[in-house]
Amino acid sequence: MTEPPQASQMFAEDAAGVLPLPSDYPGVRSSTPSTAIGGRATNWRTMTDSQAPKDWAALRDWIEWFTVRYHVPLSTVPTCWWRHAQLVEELSALHCSHRAAFDPADTGNGPISWHERLAVAMPRLSRAYAGGCSEGHRSLRPRTWSGATDEAEWDAWISQSHAH
Q1: How far, in Å, CA of 125 to CA of 33, rounded?
Q2: Domains in the chain: how many in total?
Q3: Is residue 88 part of a domain?
Q4: Is 9 contained in some domain?
Q5: What is the pTM for the complete model shown?
Q6: What's 136's DSSP letter?
């Protein structure tokens, strides 16, 4: 009678010396990366110049559709929306949520969830802009951190956890 093969003969150990389960073992999922429902979120903070045209165009297209479809007034999303960083972030988050909600892989709860998120986001959109550009774009004076922090005081502060 022949001995069954040892596990070490059937599978290769990984770098930590762990034997993987067979792919047909109950509960083992594929290790291939999946695409996220709705694609990826846009991180404007780390965006590269090569990514920018595609992401800006996709956001603009969606915002122009969204503002018409949902009758969003100019007092909430002005035509110069792209020059208001806080609006860009809010609208981009809504765009990302919308893509995920209406992704073909969604289970069917996405659209109602998106509308719930929209209801929560609308007051934030109104506050982010507050109608300041009704007679042409007016830039907000951006906050700056240049020279705002006393570095010696900061260094003393971070030397402790302040947990108590």
Answers
A1: 35
A2: 1
A3: yes
A4: no
A5: 0.62
A6: B
Exposed (0-12), middle (13-18) or buried (19+): which is 81, by Cβ within 10 Å?
buried
In angstroms, rounded to a whole number, what is the distance separating the alpha carbons of residues 90 and 121?
8
Structural domain containing residue 59: 52-129
Asked whether residue 107 is domain-assigned, the answer is yes
User: Is there a contact between 59 and 42 (Cβ–Cβ < 8 Å)?
Assistant: yes
**Whether 101 contacts 113, CB under 8 Å:** yes
Domain-located, residue 110: yes
pLDDT by position in tens, the chain (length 164) = 666 555 445 455 555 555 555 556 555 444 444 455 556 788 988 988 888 989 999 999 999 999 999 999 888 888 888 888 888 999 999 999 999 999 988 888 999 999 999 999 999 888 776 556 766 776 666 667 788 788 888 888 888 787 76
